[in-house]
Amino acid sequence: MNRLTKQIGLVLISSSLILHGCERSLTKEEKKKEEEQAAATSGGAGTSGTHGYHSGPSHFYYGRSPYPSGTTGIRTGTSSFSGTSTSRGGSRSGTSVSARGGFGAAAHGVSS
Amino acid sequence: MRRHQTQPRADWQKIVESQGMYYHTADGVPYWDESAYYEFTPGQIDTLEKATYALDQMCHTAVEHVLGNNLLEKFLIPSEYHQYIRDSWEEDEHSVYGRFDLAYDGSGDPKLLEYNADTPTALLEAAVIQWHWLKDNFPHSDQLNSIHERLLEVWKVLGQERPGTMYFTSLSGCVEDYMTVNYLRDVAIQAGCQTAHIHVEDIGWNAGRRAFTDKDEKPIQNCFKLYPWEWMQRDQFGPHLPESRCRWLEPPWKAILSNKAILPILWELFPENPYLLEASFEPLPHGDYVRKPIFGREGANLQVFKQGKLFLQTDGPYEGPAIYQEVWPLPCFDRKYYACTGSWIAGGWSCGIGIREDESLVTGNLSRFVPHLF
After folding, report:
1. Tens of pLDDT, residues B187-231
2. Coil, strand, or helix at residue A43?
């Protein structure tokens, strides 16, 4: 293991991945820029990265919170989930449209 | 094993945020705490590695024992999932990772407090953040940390074994969970996997196709979940798990090892093992024990008894049956800081540690992460 020679080879996650669920979508220009950056640092999704985690842009989140709206920015612990999602069509049983909201209601907070 | 005070890096918040750690502060107090670090000797690092391998081996033996003797009822796992779990074990479904929480003060043998075998977190800080801290502050020192490299190896295997899109899911609204799965997703991408993220609440069930689906109605055939098995089993979609063709990570058999009931089973199988603490499904006769709910998490709902009398307890949402484990206090440093050593295993490799520190004897959700070196 190791240790002295270890090199962390994280590639930058595409910021569209990080921004999943945010209120604002990337503009075409930002998306193009981001894809170029991701390609430059990782060779594109699905290829092994050879660059360091920070070898690319220093702020690949574009200075915005990478988290979905409504998150607190801190460890949310046991109060992180309202448990209301089971009302969202959980009992539908059609063949072309899936029922959703059937997971998540039992949550108390995952981090451990 | 020594605790040292040190000067945090200037703008450390910006530094760790640039590395993906936005949950560095909770209630105005640093969760990522680089005002201190722990120093080990190489011999102590070897001790931790040895203990981790031994515990992993014992855990696999324990799973065989539980399934071979039909003990899943003791784990409060509903009967409709017994065969599902058994199939998962017999098909040798791969595991990604796990974290043994150990009480270790640098002398003697580490003691297993519990095994976070299903949904361990504090991963990004252990694998990435503390490594960069080391390189910035102590470039000539070393760290027990090849977590990232081992995870990369695991995902390379999984990517070849499971072609198609690997989904990553966690609860919406929880930053730490979100970044943990995104870190793992990042590693999977580097390993060549095709990936997608979906909040666990958005996973669909298509009754006609008998399949879990994403928001575009595409079937989910492989999914890494940061969402515990015991919750999945009790959710509305739980009964669909055995009939769907989705393969989950961690695999269903990890529901055995992530359950506190594994602790008395381990003790029954390996009594007097130096890495284990006495544990039972009944209160221990000498009266010094910790009552831990079978499905408890994050140090919640613990009760510490001394000579049969309640000494300390924590609040929380976890009711129900419990196991009883011998009291083994965490080591205390500088007369104030109790340290719990989380030892990571990935793909069968002991590959790193992360120290969680608190002024309380009980390590909880907000206990600080403190880096280490040797």
Report:
1. 999 999 999 999 999 999 999 999 999 999 999 999 999 999 999
2. coil
Sequence-ordered alpha helix ranges (H) in B31-129: 42-68, 82-90, 123-124
Q: Which ipTM did the prediction report? A: 0.88
3-state secondary structure of B124: helix
Whether the upstream peptide bond of residue B250 has omega within 30° of 0, thus cis, is yes
Contact A93 B207 (CB under 8 A): yes
Which member of B173, B192, B236 has the closest CB to residue A47?
B192
Q: What is the pLDDT along chain A (112 residues), one digit of tens a residue?
A: 333 333 333 433 433 333 332 223 334 454 445 444 433 333 222 222 222 222 222 222 222 333 333 333 333 222 222 222 222 233 334 457 999 999 998 776 444 4
Contacts of B351 in chain A (CB under 8 A): 1
Closest partner residue to B205 among A54, A102, A106, by Cβ?
A: A102
CA neighbor of B26 nearest in space, from A75, A66, A14, A34? A75
Cβ–Cβ < 8 Å for B218, A42: no
Q: Do B121 and A42 touch (CB under 8 A)?
A: no
According to DSSP, the β-strands at A99-100 and B204-206 are antiparallel
Q: DSSP letters of B166-223?
A: EEEEE-TT-HHHHHHHHHHHHHHHHTT-EEEEEEGGG-EEETTTTEEE-TTS-B--EE
What is the gyration radius of the CA atoms in chain B, in angstroms?
20
Among B292, B63, B114, smallest CA distance to A112 is for B114
Give the integer Cα–Cα distance in Å for B128 and A97. Answer: 40
Structure tokens at B13: 């918040």
B342 bridge partner residues: B101, B354
